[in-house]
Amino acid sequence: MGKYYFLVSLIPPFPAVLGEKSPLPFSEISKIVRRNIEPEDAPLVESLLWGVDVTNFENLHLGRAVFLEGGILTQEEIERKKNLPLFIQAFLEERDRGIRRPYVFDALWEKYYSYAYTLGQERNCRFLVDYLSWEIGLRNQLVMIRAKEKGVEAGDYAILPQAGTRDLSVLVTLVRSQRSPLLAERLIDEERLKAIFHCEGGDPFSVNSVLALLARADRFRRWEKMTIPYEVRGIIDRR
Questions:
Q1: pLDDT value at 226 more than 70
Q2: CA dihedral 202, 205, 211, 212 (to 10 degrees)
Q3: Could you tell me the CA-to-CA distances from 144 to 86, 138, 150, 159 in Å, in that order?
Q4: Who's near 236: CB < 8 A, 6+ residues apart?
Q5: For residue range 156-197, what is the model confidence (pLDDT) as tens digits?
Q6: Whole-model pTM above 0.85?
Q7: Quick check: 132 and 120 in contact, CB under 8 A?
Q8: Taking the CB of residue 36, how many other CB atoms lie within 10 A of it?
Q9: Could you tell me if 77 and 83 are in contact, meaning their C-beta atoms sit under 8 angstroms apart?
Q10: pLDDT surpasses 70 at 232
Q11: CA dist., res. 58 & res. 60, Å (int)
C-alpha cells in the first residue's frame, strides 16, 4: 500500500469538466492534506499553499476585496503582516528600498517561485520541479509575445528564465487564437490539468500525487466562481 493511500482516499474524485462543482471546497481539501501529511513532506505541501497566500497578499495590496481560503495564512495575518514567510518579508524589504520593475508584484512572484522551485530541487520532488518549470515557462512566453506587440522590454516582466525552459510555443499560439480572454484562460487551465497529470508520476499514493491533488483542486476551485477573470492579454498591462 502506498505512503499516502489513506490521505488520497479521503478526497472524492474531481469533476470531469472545469466549472462543475467540486465535491469538497479547496479549503477543506487543504485542511485534510495538512492534517495527514508526514512531517518530512509538510514543507512541500506548504510550498504550494504559499502560492494561495501570495495571491491573497497581492489582492489585498491592489485593493481587491477577494480572499481565497485554503492557504497557510489567515486574512488577519496578511493584513497585519504577521507570520509571513521569509520570501514575502524579503519582498517587503526590497519594496521599501525601491523595486525597479514596471509591476512590483512580479518581484514577489519571482521570490515565491524561486523558493518553491529551489525546495523542489533540494527535496528531489519531481512534481514541484516539473510543474513549476512548466508554469514559469508558460508565463514567460506569454510575456515575450505581448511585450513584442506593445514594443516594450520583455525582460522587465519575465521571472526566473533559467527555470522555465520548456517550449510551449504551440500552446501560446492556441491561446492567442482564442476569441476572448476568458476562453484563453480556460484553455490554459485545461492544459494546466494535463501538465499536473504528467508531472505527478506513476505512483498514485506518493507525495507527488498529493501535490498534484492540491494543484488540481485549486484549478477546479477557480472555475466554480470566476469572479475575477485573469486576462491573459493583459499580463503586462498591469501597472
A1: no
A2: 50
A3: 29, 10, 10, 11
A4: 102, 103, 143, 146, 147, 150, 152, 157
A5: 888 898 887 777 888 888 888 888 888 888 999 999 999 999
A6: yes
A7: yes
A8: 14
A9: yes
A10: no
A11: 5
- pLDDT bucket at 227, cuts 50 / 70 / 90: very low
Q: How many Cα atoms are found within 13 Å in the side-chain-facing hemisphere of 211?
A: 31
Question: What pLDDT does residue 239 have?
Answer: 37
Computed on alpha carbons and rounded to an integer, the radius of gyration of the chain in Å comes to 18
DSSP state letters, the chain: --TTHHHHHTSPPPPSSTTSPPSS-HHHHHHHHHHHS-GGGHHHHHHHHHHHHHHHHHHHHTT-----TTSSS-HHHHHHT-S--HHHHHHHHHHHH---SSSTHHHHHHHHHHHHHHHHHHTT-HHHHHHHHHHHHHHHHHHHHHHHHHTS-GGGT---TTT-----HHHHHHHHTSSSHHHHHHHHHHHHHHHHHHHS-S-TTSHHHHHHHHHHHHHHHHHHS-SS---GGGTTT--
- Write the CA distances from 58 to 30, 80, 88, 123, integer angstroms: 20, 14, 11, 28
Location of C-alpha cell 480556460? 186
Check whether 131 has a pLDDT greater than 70: yes
Q: What is the mean pLDDT of the chain?
A: 90
Q: What band does 71 get if pLDDT is binned at 50, 70 and 90?
A: very high
pLDDT of residue 1: 57
DSSP for 179-192 reads SSHHHHHHHHHHHH
The Cα–Cα gap between 120 and 139 comes to 19
